[in-house]
């Protein structure tokens, strides 16, 4: 895969670097313009792809943008995001804010298998975040649908933020999108 590279950051996290242009078009170019860089996606590993896809699509309203199956390597990749009308065949290289779920075959069958969410010791990855049109209504909907909570709106001092948990225990911060806030 000549269009993808990985770099290790100072905290030992891997950063995936994806070309926006065809490799052939950039051969021989030795300079780059950081002002053109964009945050494309983040990847988390999931135990059960069915439960995770249902959660991110049905509970958080994401669309499945693209699926990449690798049976010979024993894993599938699912790319999700907020793209109206997506049909599982979207060129995700040009998007920003995409969530990549990596599912390794068989993990869903092992009841003791668990991924580290990054929030227990040793801490690392923290959380994902989404904005919603109406924070109170979204939290009520999550409650009615049995979503697991890390922090409800009524918990603690910060009454303008909630945290829900995905099926693997990853934290998802939920905040009001000010563009949609009723006045």
Overview in brief:
The chain has 183 residues and is of the alpha+beta class. 14% of the residues lie in helices and 32% in strands.
What does this structure look like?
The chain is an alpha+beta fold and 183 residues long. It has 3 helices and 10 strands, in the order ββαβαββββαβββ. The chain has helices at 23-26, 49-59, 135-144, and strands at 4-8, 14-18, 41-46, 63-70, 75-81, 98-104, 127-132, 148-151, 161-165, 171-176. A 4-stranded mixed sheet has the order 3-6-5-4, with helices on one face. It has a 4-stranded mixed sheet with strand order 7-10-9-8, with helices on one face. Strands 1-2 form a two-stranded antiparallel ribbon. Strand 4 and strand 5 (75-81) form a beta hairpin. It is globular. The mean pLDDT is 89.
Report the total helices: 3
Residues in β-strands, percent: 25-35%
Count every beta strand, where a strand is a DSSP E run of 2 or more residues.
Answer: 10
Radius of gyration: 18 Å
- Describe the sheet with the most strands: 4 strands, mixed
Secondary-structure element string: EEHEHEEEEHEEE
Please give the order of strands in the largest beta sheet.
Answer: 3-6-5-4
The general outline is: globular
- Unreliable spans: none
Could you tell me how far the N terminus lies from the C terminus, measured between alpha carbons in angstroms?
A: 50 Å
User: Mean pLDDT score, rounded?
Assistant: 89
Structural class per helix/strand content? alpha+beta
Helix content: 10-25%
